[in-house]
Amino acid sequence: MGTNGASVSSSNLTAEIEKQVNEHMLFHYGAKQDVLPWEHGPLSALSFPLRIARLVQEWAAKLNVQNKRVLDLGCSVGGASFELAKKFSDVVGVDVEHFVQAAEEMKRDGQRKFSRKEEGKLATELIASTDSFVDRTRVTFRTADLENLSSSELGSFNVVLLEHIL
């Protein structure tokens, strides 16, 4: 149901999901000039998934936490998950199906096409790529209801990253 109580057609839902995936692909993998194509802007806001993953790695090292298993809860399209795989031997990213599908494509192919909306129906086709230094086999993605996760289903972790899920 739409917010006004009217039913939402599956084509509208598909278009909205595609829009969300494209926005998240840009946020997780977009080059600086693609995300912020203007001369002035908040450069410190760029590459948040990479920065948060590096912060997790830094704190894990400071606290002498073993770099074994990390849970990336709300992983979206996997940008932070792949960055975490540089230091952790087993990364499990969990999110809703449409984001996990895009993350799985990134894992399988190391890249994925996506669109950046320009204006109206105009869009620019871009290609996202994972860092070539990432061992993508260290990352597993799971679709799950984030409100009903079970440790018996997922196992235990040394570190948990909760990103954009509240």
What does this structure look like?
By secondary structure, the chain is of the alpha/beta class. It is 37% helix and 22% strand. The strands form two sheets. A four-stranded parallel beta sheet has the order 5-2-1-6. It has a two-stranded antiparallel ribbon with strand order 3-4. Helix 4 (79-84) links the parallel strand 1 (69-73) and strand 2 (90-95). It starts with 9 loop residues before the first helix and ends with a strand. The model is unreliable at 1-11 (pLDDT under 50).
Quick structural gist:
Helix content is 37%, strand content 22%.
- Gyration radius, in Å: 17 Å
Q: What is the typical, i.e. mean, pLDDT?
A: 89
SSE order in H/E notation? Answer: HHHEHEHEEEHE
Helical stretch count?
6
Strand order of the main beta sheet, please?
Answer: 5-2-1-6
Helical proportion, percent range: 25-40%
Number of DSSP-assigned strands: 6
Task: Report the structural category.
Answer: alpha/beta
N-to-C terminal Cα separation, in Å?
Answer: 22 Å
Overall geometry comes to globular
What proportion of the residues form beta strands (DSSP E)? 15-25%
Poorly predicted runs: 1-11
Sheet with the most strands, sense and barrel status: 4 strands, parallel
Helices and strands, with pairings:
Layout: H1 10-29, H2 32-35, H3 48-62, E1 69-73, H4 79-84, E2 90-95, H5 97-109, E3 111-119, E4 122-129, E5 139-143, H6 151-154, E6 159-162
Parallel strand pairs: 1-2, 1-6, 2-5
Antiparallel strand pairs: 3-4
